């Protein structure tokens, strides 16, 4: 029911949740989770905890992990900092690309729960940062088969209405197929543009030709128009076009979860093979890879330095 997640008036949001989501999604999601559950529990929780622990150990940082919906909660994290008398907090939404449904709702919840007790600064989305791109390249290279036909970057999808809402001019985003090919003020916060930029930068780091990779969007939910092309359709289309050995990376996630391990690694793989493909290799997320621990630590350190300089100059 978060308006940032389903951005329609309350009555329509209630209708979508009550009629299309709650009657079906909980049971199907629970069944899907059973197929990826680890001895340690949820992969998302496990890998994020490991990442936080290693960041603390290797970079001398005070870190608390928080989930926007669930536990450990944002309130618990803020209370922990308050008990330790830590007053200056850097908020890092662990989403590489910006969108209201992930970044804005998380930041607003932190501000709301903080109640002006601590000084907050926000770490910007890192979709094009050197640390993120280099770490992504390293993880892909480590799992990339010697002989593959195509690399697909699959991102979590968004309703088209949310993309258009991010355009202050109201006439640029999704107006045509090439709207993301150039950077404008109107698409500065466009999720689609940031996803495609991530794909381009990682592909360049891997020295891939334009024909060797593509991008798509997964996890559509509900009857409204979402970003295209859909990953589900793209997997079938690639198989039918003659792609036999496909590699899929998911750079809108930094930790493996249901959308990567089950949706792509299991159902996506099955769809690809049923459509005529032979092999689908799922690249792990960055998780707690040493390069990512080092890169994220550097990103946080750089942010702290910039904040300190800004305070000094003021």
C-alpha end-to-end distance = 40 Å
- Average pLDDT, rounded to a whole number, is 92
Strand content: 5-15%
Number of strands: 6
SS summary, helix count:
11
User: What shape does the CA trace take?
Assistant: globular
Order of helices and strands: HHHHEHEHEHHEHEHEH
Q: CATH class of the largest domain, anyone? A: Alpha Beta
Could you tell me the radius of gyration in angstroms? 20 Å
CATH architecture of the largest domain: 3-Layer(aba) Sandwich
| CATH structural fold name of the largest domain | Rossmann fold
- Structural class estimated from helices and strands: alpha/beta
Q: Main sheet?
A: 4 strands, parallel
Protein described:
With 314 residues, this protein is α/β, with parallel strands linked by helices. It folds into 2 domains: 116 residues, Rossmann fold, CATH 3.40.50.1400; 153 residues, Rossmann fold, CATH 3.40.50. 48% of the residues lie in helices and 10% in strands. It is built from 11 helices and 6 strands. A 4-stranded parallel sheet has the order 4-3-5-6, with helices on both faces. A two-stranded parallel ribbon has the order 1-2. The radius of gyration is 20 Å and the shape is globular. 33% of the residues are buried. The mean pLDDT is 92.
SSE topology:
Blueprint: H1 10-21, H2 25-36, H3 43-59, H4 74-83, E1 88-91, H5 100-114, E2 119-122, H6 130-143, E3 150-156, H7 160-165, H8 191-205, E4 213-218, H9 231-240, E5 245-249, H10 258-274, E6 279-282, H11 290-313
Parallel strand pairs: 1-2, 3-4, 3-5, 5-6
Helix pairs in contact: 3-11, 6-8, 6-11, 9-10
